Amino acid sequence: GIQVEQSPPDLILQEGANSTLRCNFSDSVNNLQWFHQNPWGQLINLFYIPSGTKQNGRLSATTVATERYSLLYISSSQTTDSGVYFCAVEGGSGGSYIPTFGRGTSLIVHP
Amino acid sequence: DSGVTQTPKHLITATGQRVTLRCSPRSGDLSVYWYQQSLDQGLQFLIQYYNGEERAKGNILERFSAQQFPDLHSELNLSSLELGDSALYFCASSVAIGSGNTIYFGEGSWLTVV
Q: How many other CB atoms are there within 10 angstroms of residue B25's CB atom?
């Protein structure tokens, strides 16, 4: 099946800093989503982005499908951005439509 | 609020027992997924249903079973529970299967086996 790697595994920032999270995948994808898991465990949809660039407030994401990676940008980080960010992809040579998750990037934003 | 409802939110039970987790998908969603999240294994896909039929199976133990009912809600049954089954169990739903498909997660059911 398709492999998903996220980096960095851990990130610690001061409030106001910017960051870039990366998601590499091993095969072509049909779907790609970014999620934020908050400290209470909730998984919140951030972006559906199998290709191209999207922006939502301080967050933006870019997926370069031909090069098999996606980036999540967080600007002017706030303490509420803390949590784990997951990338989930569907695809691969078998045409799987089951979202496969990376191990996530754990983000801590200090005030 | 994603629109996916899971009950119970928290559950503590003893080893050897059986529990049932329930999921109501978003209105109009036909596909339901179950995931297990533990500290050492990350988010692991268990099983998927589409319009009442099983469509895909992941790393689901034989002690676990699931079904999707005609009203599209789903239940995950966990039996002969072991300490290692303690985890956060998520249900997710989507309109369909295929390209362009966005999945939405419920708030999860925290299971603690003691």
A: 27
